[in-house]
């Protein structure tokens, strides 16, 4: 299992976990361009994201959650998907 912190801080948070062909993105508080650039630098691609977990509704965690198909996005009760 590989863990990659793509962004951490008040301007955006995002973590990518990859294991046995499955990619999990935790939060997407960075731009689409930043996300894909950081993934590419690590040797991953957009298609490697199979699930997205939104931990909570703060802009630094959910800024670009809307770029994903909602069928792969998971969140706690009460979270509002943007």
What do these coordinates show?
The chain has 82 residues and is α/β, with parallel strands linked by helices. It is 17% helix and 29% strand. The chain contains 2 helices and 5 strands; from the N terminus they run E-E-E-H-E-H-E. The protein has helices at 32-41, 59-62, and strands at 2-7, 14-19, 22-26, 51-54, 73-75. Strands 1-2-3-4-5 form a 5-stranded mixed beta sheet, with helices on one face. A hairpin with a 2-residue loop joins strand 2 and strand 3 (22-26). The protein is globular, with a radius of gyration of 12 Å.
List the helices and strands and how they pair.
Elements: E1 2-7, E2 14-19, E3 22-26, H1 32-41, E4 51-54, H2 59-62, E5 73-75
Parallel strand pairs: 3-4, 4-5
Antiparallel strand pairs: 1-2, 2-3
- Specify the helix fraction band: 10-25%
Structural class: alpha/beta
Strand order of the largest sheet: 1-2-3-4-5
Number of strands: 5
- Low-pLDDT residue intervals, each spanning 5 or more residues: none
Q: Please count the helical segments.
A: 2
How far apart lie the N and C ends? Answer: 29 Å
Rounded mean pLDDT score: 90
Beta-strand content: 25-35%
**Which series of helices and strands comes N to C?**
EEEHEHE
Shape: globular
Largest sheet: 5 strands, mixed
């Amino acid at each position: 299992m590989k863990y990659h912190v793509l962004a951490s801080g008040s301007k955006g948070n995002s973590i990518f976990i990859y294991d046995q062909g499955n990619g999990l993105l935790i939060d997407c508080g960075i731009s689409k361009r930043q996300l894909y650039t950081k993934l590419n630098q690590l040797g991953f691609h957009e298609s490697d994201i199979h699930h997205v977990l939104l931990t909570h509704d703060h802009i630094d965690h959910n800024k670009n959650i809307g770029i994903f198909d909602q069928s792969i996005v998971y969140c706690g009760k009460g979270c509002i998907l943007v």
